[in-house]
Amino acid sequence: MTNFQQIEAKIHTAASIQAQVNTWRAAGDRIVFTNGCFDLLHFGHIHYLAAARDLGDRLVVGMNSGASVRRLKGPRRPINDEATRTHLLAALGFVDALIVFESDTPYDLIGLVQPDILVKGGDWRPEQIVGSDLVLARGGQVLSLPFIDGYSTTNIEQKIIKSNDE
User: Fold this and answer.
1) pTM for this structure?
2) Are the C-beta atoms of residues 48 and 64 closer than 8 Å to each other?
3) What is the rounded CA–CA span in Å between residue 107 and residue 30?
4) Structure letter (DSSP) for residue 106
5) What are the start-end ranges of the E strands in 55-116?
């Protein structure tokens, strides 16, 4: 299998993610789930995703579709197209599986994956995290991981806009 095929093998549909998670769970793996837009991949994302993966044996990332990002972030977003965002995330060694979701929240996807650990970034208190009720009902954990100050897609976008205005 080529390196690119290995990357693409991490990108799942609803049916294939469920089968993959079931295989991992049968092997005794602890499944960690997180989600986001991951528009311009930056140091903060890398740090956050690596820390999420350290919490379990497998990291499943739910990524907002382009339409979902536009609804949440506005008409200028996403900056990177869906294929770019998907493949960049799947290329990370600590991301075990990735799935794109169309809705504004990953609630249904969390119900499908049934992770042992659900994580989001530090701007979310655990009780605010979408799907926390599903994970806690199964006896899982819901955690908020700290952000690395100064790193965000919005900050990068503003730097680009400002440099173009000068």
Assistant:
1) 0.92
2) no
3) 19
4) -
5) 58-64, 97-101
Sign of the Cα pseudo-torsion (62, 158, 46, 150, in order):
negative
Q: What is the pLDDT of residues 103-120, one digit of tens each?
A: 999 999 999 999 999 999
CA–CA separation, 139 and 147 (whole Å):
26
CA–CA gap between residue 37 and residue 77 (Å, rounded):
10
Give the side-chain half-sphere CA count within 13 A for 40: 13
Query: Tokens standing for 134?
Result: 């599903």
**33, 118 Cβ separation under 8 angstroms:** yes
Please write the tens of the pLDDT for every residue from 53-93: 999 999 999 999 999 999 999 998 898 999 999 999 999 99
Both structure tokens of 9: 């093998």
CA distances for 17 relative to 52, 113, 117, 122, 165, angstroms: 18, 7, 16, 26, 44
* Radius of gyration in angstroms for the set of CA atoms belonging to the chain, rounded to a whole number: 16
Task: Please give the domain boundaries of the chain with CATH numbers for all domains.
Answer: 3-165 (3.40.50.620)
